Amino acid sequence: MAFQPFDDRDGFIWINGKMLPWREAKIHVLSHGLHYASSVFEGERMYDGTIFKSLEHSKRLIRSAEILGMQVPLTPDQIEEIKYEVMEANGLKDGYVRPVAWRGGEQMGVSARKTKTHVAVAGWHWGTYYPEEKQVNGLRLKTAPWRRPAPDTAPTQSKAAGLYMICTMSKHAIEDEGYDDALMLDYRGYIAEASAANFFAVKDGVLLTPTPDCFLNGITRQTVMALAKDMGIKVEERHLKPEELSQFQEIFLTGTAAEITAVGEIDGQRFTVGPVTKRLKEAYQALVRQKPKKLVKAG
Hints:
Blueprint: E1 12-15, E2 18-21, H1 32-36, E3 39-41, E4 44-47, E5 50-51, H2 54-67, H3 76-89, E6 95-103, E7 117-124, H4 134-137, E8 139-143, H5 165-175, E9 181-185, E10 191-194, E11 198-203, E12 206-209, H6 219-230, E13 235-237, E14 250-255, E15 259-266, E16 269-270, H7 275-288
Helix pairs in contact: 2-3
């Protein structure tokens, strides 16, 4: 499929109360969010007409904004309705959903008390985040040149746009060397996550994952941990050191876009796409396509 720019497509995007033709959904160049990173967003997937963990994502969008001192002018239930309206307008039953909230151009400067919080929701078809061939032998990772910041230096529990700047820089750096993604350490030197996905490892049948005390506790991450416990797999959440990598038999990444993707190599060390990864991947794919018994309201 030929590359398709995101600012030049057919379809519709909901923005500030209006369903606009895709190419007309624009913001002013002097929007505060563009200059000062006062923006939060969500990434969600729709499977067979149902957005997986949709309400949790809507609530997290509002919570992320509140952490930045922004007030989203919508309730979770209103966001839910808008997301489904957008997907229907674009004729999508399977696809990716992107709600985003940002401070507008009512005021320019570090102080932004006079700005309004603007909201948009877009949706488009999106297949696998990583190339299909990587699902067989796993991703090749290399340790990133940038680290996840301490929680007292950045709003690490918000899905804030500004926190992804070092992710892009790290991913570009390792892609230049032929790798698929970056392994990001935290400010202390512990393993944190990949550029946009959470980290899991298997050691002697135990599922290990870093403590999310300075990075986002992903919704997919929480889902996979719950699946593992239901399957009788012991889950251990703790700080993981890079020097422990040689002790792990399997490694995989999780995220809404990444879903569950195996890792085959990190900094030259090889890992197998093993039975725990495969079992969890199968269980996750079954879960995301499971029809909900009833529509859950935020209350």
